[in-house]
Specification:
Distance between the termini: 39 Å
Helix content: 25-40%
Number of strands: 9
CATH topology of the domain at 12-124: Alpha-Beta Plaits
Radius of gyration: 36 Å
CATH superfamily of the domain at 12-124: Trigger factor ribosome-binding domain
Shape: flat
Structural class: alpha+beta
């Protein structure tokens, strides 16, 4: 220890003993000089006095004695917080600790004007010494693209380019319906509310969807529906209501035909075969990238397995 370090240690109001519990956990047992405890408490009381308003005194002019009487516990709390934070920062800096996660304070022993002591447990980045870094062998999977994979992508493209067309038939799951709904409980003057949504997509409760499926375009009817207990609107959750529902319109999704024209409309392709070829190449390239990533992950797992070390819980939670 240098002369400067010896002098700093002699004047440091924080006595810190550090114990290495394991590769990642450090335990700091801290005691604070009584003079530092008293000085910090006076400072926290003065700071509180500046902002305290008490009837009969101007702001910032309340006598210290009255501040102490009314806010003694708060002053003590702020004193301890200030000293714990300062002691922790000093210890981290002086001992060059690479801390992770939040420190845990325990075994706090404090009396105003006396020697404060406490314990801090904190996780640090463990020092990792690699015993083995090479010679690992992992198998890379072969990448193949099947016709079914290409068909699935093209079918999704068709769905993305589908057009909703009005149909004169009973609605089905997947159709988009326009309906008007009114509650009977509200009387004849209850407002009619319009809705438009896709059936079977979870936008309406099951009883309402079943009621709509029983109607033809232009028809209306009165239905008793039960709202689930976890329904978003609290006033409706778990209740049974009578609704008047009118089906105004049904629109069905019309998929485009798989033709050369379809291929040219969605991209720079002259034929459907060119579109399929482009999809196959993209799927193959994506599969190759994923296979490379899997190799990297397996190699990392192998390195970790060959060089075991304790992982701090805060890095895995």
């Amino acid at each position: 220890m240098s002369a400067a370090d010896s002098q700093a240690a002699a004047t440091d109001p924080f006595d810190v003993a550090i114990k290495q519990e394991n590769d990642y956990l450090r335990r700091l047992d801290v005691s604070v000089d009584p003079a530092q405890v008293a000085a910090t408490r006076r400072r926290e009381a003065a700071k509180l006095r500046k902002t305290t308003r008490i009837k009969g005194f101007r702001k910032g002019k309340v006598p210290v004695r009255i501040v102490e009487e009314r806010y003694g516990p708060l002053i003590d709390e702020r004193t301890v917080d200030a000293l714990v934070n300062r002691a922790f920062r000093n210890a981290v800096q002086r001992h060059d600790l690479s801390t992770i996660g939040e420190p845990v304070v325990s075994e706090l022993d404090y009396q105003p004007g006396e020697r404060l002591s406490f314990r801090i447990d904190v996780e640090v980045m463990p020092a990792i010494e690699l015993a083995r870094t090479g010679g690992f062998r992992v198998k890379r999977r072969e990448v193949a693209v099947e016709d079914a994979d290409v068909d699935e992508v093209i079918e999704n493209i068709r769905k993305e380019n589908a057009v909703l067309q009005p149909v004169d038939r009973a609605p089905q799951s997947g159709d988009v319906v326009a309906v008007a709904i009114r509650e009977h409980e509200g009387g004849d003057g209850a407002a009619e509310k319009p809705y438009r949504f896709e059936l079977g997509a979870g936008y309406a409760i099951p009883d309402v969807e079943d009621a709509i499926l029983a109607l033809a375009p232009g028809e209306e009817g009165t239905f008793t529906v039960s709202y689930p207990d976890d329904f978003g609107a609290e006033e409706l959750a778990g209740t049974t209501r009578s609704l008047q529902i009118r089906l105004d319109e049904v629109r069905a999704s019309e998929l485009p035909d798989l033709t050369d024209d379809f291929a040219s409309e969605i991209g720079n392709f002259e034929t459907l075969a060119e579109l399929r070829e482009a999809v196959e190449k993209e799927l193959l390239a994506r599969g190759e990238r994923q296979a490379d990533e899997e190799v990297g992950e397996r190699l990392l797992d192998a390195v970790i397995e060959a060089n075991a070390f304790e992982v701090p819980p805060s890095l895995t939670s």
